[in-house]
Every structure is written in C-alpha cells, then in structure tokens.
Design brief:
The chain has 334 residues and is of the alpha+beta class. The chain has twelve helices and nine strands. α7 (205-220) packs antiparallel against α10.
Amino acid sequence: MSRVHADANAILGKSWYDYDNFRIDWSPPDRYEIVRRLGGGKYSEVFEGVDMLNSERCVIKVLKPVAAKKIKREIKVLRNLTGGPNVIALLDVVRDPSARYHSLVMEYVEAVDWKRLFPILTEGDIKHFTCQLLLALSHVHEHGVMHRDVKPANVMIDYQRRQLRLIDWGLAEFYHPNVDYHIRVGSRYYKAPELLVNYKYYDYSLDMWSVGCMFASMIFRKEHFFRGSDNDDQLLKIMKALGTELFDLYLKTYNIHFETEIDNLLINYPKQPWTRFITAENRHLASQDALDLLDKLLRYDHGQRLTAKECHGELFLTGHFGVDFFFSSTPIFQ
C-alpha cells in the first residue's frame, strides 16, 4: 500500500475514477486542421494543428485502434487533471463521422528536444524544471493517479517561456490499494525495479524512480542514465550501480520471487558511490546535495523513495540549488 494518498480515490468517489461508465461527448473534427506530424508511437500519431475558430495552435493526438476502455481511461484522467499545475491541458475530443478515428486536442507546447536540452542545462534550469515536474506529479498523485510513463519524451519543456508540461496519459491509471497492476508499462530506460522483477502491487512511487532517472541524466549529463538493451540488461545496469545486497533485501522485504537464467544477474555487485559518475564535464552540477537527493529517489525499495511533495521540498531547500539560481538562468535557445 502506498504510504501517501492511498485513499485518494476512495475519498474522491467512484465518479472520479470509474472510467468504465464514463460517457464521452465527441466533437466533429471540422474545427481543426492538421499542419504537420510531430511524432508517434505504439498507440498514437501526434500532429501540430490549428483551431480554425480562433487560429490558435494545438496538438492533435490521433489514437490508433485500441480497446474502448483504454481510450476512456486516458480521457477520464485528462479531464480530471486538466488545470492542474504543469499538466497538459485537454481542449477537446473529436471523432470522425465513421467513428473509426478518435483524437485528443491539447494545448501546444514549443518544446526543445531532450537531446539538445540535457547537455546545456544549468543548475538553475535543473532546479526550475525539476520543481515544475514535481509540482505536476504531486498534484497527480494527490488526486489518485499514477502516470506510469514519466520520461523525457513525455516531459515537454518550453525553454524560452520556462514552462514544463507533463504529457501522454495513455498508460496512466487510478491507484487503489492492494490491486495488482499490469507490469508492461513505462519505457525501458525509466522502468522502476518493481516492474523489472514483475512486482504488480506498485504505487505512485513508480513515477518517482523515473524522476530520479531524469534527475541523474541532468546532473551527470547523460542522455539516459540507465540504458539497457532489454529488460534484463536494464536490471543489470541498475544492479551494477545500486548493488546486489540491497536488491536481495528488497526481494526479501516484499516476498518477491525472482528467477533468472541470465548469469550476469546472479553475480554479486557492490553498491557504487554516486561520486563515481562525476566527470570534469558534470562536476559543477553533481554536488553532495544533489547526490543525496538522487540517492533518496533511486532506491530499490519503493516504500523508501521520496514522494513528489517531499522531493520538491528538499530540492527547493537544498543549498546546491540556491534561490538565486531559480531566477538567474538566461535562455540559451533563441
């Protein structure tokens, strides 16, 4: 059971989380015009669009054919959370006359690609945008929702406007205590250990591991901090950093039965100090305060990870990121 907000959905009531019985009023698509493709994935294609009524830019996410339940869940989550701090705003839901194509219309964000962004982030940038992400997740978790796919591609950063939006709620789910959830969520480089050992009783702390991975990427200036070639190799990368002693304790604590035929996963690895990942290039970012915060996020035991609210408090108060940095960053992208 989550140590925070475990009863959030019970308090908010069935109408808040019951997406199975959620009725969607679809709009016709005539109001919107597609301008260009922005990207796509397993479940959708994403386009820049224009709202012909007011000439404002928007994002049109065209959903690929999936179960109606999944569509309802994503729209219900977005409807519930829209208006929350740094959560992408859902503007409209449209369906073509054949009822074959369903699309979500959302606010447009002038985002900078992560590959361009992570190598040049300053101390002030890291604090500012991490705080914004934590504010979003604090709101989301307080309202009973796990995002389950936090990663740079789903964290849109408008560097010029100093704004961040958490997007892509297709894998999000409402949290209920003692419910076993699907483990095929998240993206490999940001998957928490519980997913990699098939532990289904996870909670909001799943998202906090992913925040830790992003924080490590920023302070160590690595595009992806744990970069496994498959799920087994992903777990191996984690074990080589966090060690096997704490991994074995984690399995024992939660009575997780973990079997593997991968020889490298059966070797004992010592826990590495975070200072091992410091280089001349990242030394100015990886202070002891930053490493201490990172250590409280990247933990096997999900019950020991900082919550979004706790992490935001520590990040704001830590001497590593003084208040002056919060205001002093000069935009790099013109």
